[in-house]
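hey can u check if this looks right to u? its 165 residues, i copy pasted from the old doc so theres a chance i mangled smth
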Amino acid sequence: MGEMKNMDRIYREYAETVYKYLFCLTHDAELAEELTQETFYQAMKTINNFRGDCKLSVWLCQIAKNMWRRDCAKKNKNKSIPLDDIEFKLSAKENIEEDILKNEDKLTLFRKLHSLDEKTKEVMYLRLTGELSFREIGDIVNRSENWARVTFYRGKQKILKEGDK
C-alpha cells in the first residue's frame, strides 16, 4: 500500500512536467495526456528498477520518450513534426520568446528550428512550445540549467542571424 501512496505523490509532483515534455514531442494535447498516463503506468510497473543515478523527473521523461517512440512506430510516423499542426503557446511574460517571434511567422520559424542541431532544437521546442523553465529543461536533457539557457540563447541567435540574410 505504501508503494501506491508513493506513486500518487510522484504523479502529483511530476505529471505536469511529463505532460509538457510529451506535448513538446507530440504537439497534440490529447495524445500527450494519454502518453502521460501510460508513462506513469509503466513507471509504476518498473519503479523498482529506478537506481537513482539520475533525477526522478529525468527517468520519467526517458520513459515518456520511449512511450512516444513506441506510439510513433505503431502509427508508422516519422520523427518530424508537420509544421501546420504545431500549436504555439507563449506566455505574455516571456520577452525572450516574443522577441524571436516578432518578425517571424510560425512556418518560417519552425523551418529555421528544424535546421538546428538535435540538442538545440530540443531545447528550443521545450522552451517555446512546452513553456518549461530552463531548470526543467536542464533536468529533462540531463544537463545544467545554465547549459539549457546558453543553448537556447545560441539557438535564438542562429535563428535571428538567418533572418538577416
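The chain has a mean pLDDT of 75.
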